[in-house]
Amino acid sequence: MCALTGKKAIVTGGASGIGRAVAVLFAQAGATVSVVDLDEPKGSAVVGAIIAAGGQAMFIRADVSRAEDCQNAVAETASALGGGAIINNASGWGLTGGGRAAVYCASKDAVVNLTRVMAIDHGAKNIRVNCIAPGDTDTSMLRDEAKQLGEPVDAFLKDSADRPLGCISRPEEIAAAVLYLASDAASFVTGAILTVDGGSLAD
Ligand SMILES: NC(=O)c1ccc[n+]([C@@H]2O[C@H](COP(=O)([O-])OP(=O)(O)OC[C@H]3O[C@@H](n4cnc5c(N)ncnc54)[C@H](O)[C@@H]3O)[C@@H](O)[C@H]2O)c1
To answer: Whose Cα sits closest to atom 24 in ligand 1?
Structure first.
């Protein structure tokens, strides 16, 4: 149900963390993956790992804050796109507030509602637009956050595990939710916000 055989996928931020896990999983599911990132060495390493495992991938260096880079990444991946699925990456902090993170929370809240608007605007073209809202996930971003806040990384990660399932997420667990939303198993799902946070927001 979650196969992506013959599909083309663009994974932004694909050189690290959640994006890396999505790129690897999508390739395993049969997609040809464009790993899009600022970080060429790490992105190329992800592509190398996918190809070594028998998958298909290429690296495209792009700054996703630049419209021209995004247009080029799409053009390099596929000359013509019909239908498809977009999965935005928000955060649990797009659904609730978090201390000392005003800009992050505001921007993630914007991603949540952007997802709904895009689902409305593009539904007629059979483009589904959904969003994941991950909880704390063990990536370089989370470890950098601890450093930025001046907190010991191990203690920060331990505190972050305080949620119903009692642990933070692995990037692969977020990637599995992204795969579902990209696949035909979610053929009637659009405009949805899928929380993947070990129950944090339920608590
Ligand atoms: N890790 C968490 O706990 C967590 C929780 C909720 C949401 N998220 C969201 O998940 C997404 C991925 O985070 P992550 O934890 O995997 O981080 P990460 O630091 O492991 O990976 C981020 C990647 O994005 C790339 N990148 C950054 N700016 C870019 C740009 N302008 N253009 C192209 N590439 C760029 C970086 O080079 C890096 O490879 C982010 O949107 C983050 O807000 C993460």
So the answer is: 13
Average pLDDT per 10 consecutive residues for the chain, totaling 203 residues: 94 98 98 98 98 98 98 90 93 96 98 98 98 98 96 97 98 98 98 98 96
CA 20 / ligand 1 centre spacing (Å) = 10
Model pTM score? 0.98
In whole angstroms, give the CA distance from residue 91 to residue 32: 26
Q: Is 137 in the pocket of ligand 1 (CB under 6 A)?
A: yes
The residue whose two tokens read 């890396």 is 20
For ligand 1, what atom is nearest to the CA of residue 168? Answer: 3
Tally of structural domains, the chain: 2
Q: Which domain holds residue 129?
A: 84-203
User: CB of 63 within 8 A of CB of 69?
Assistant: yes
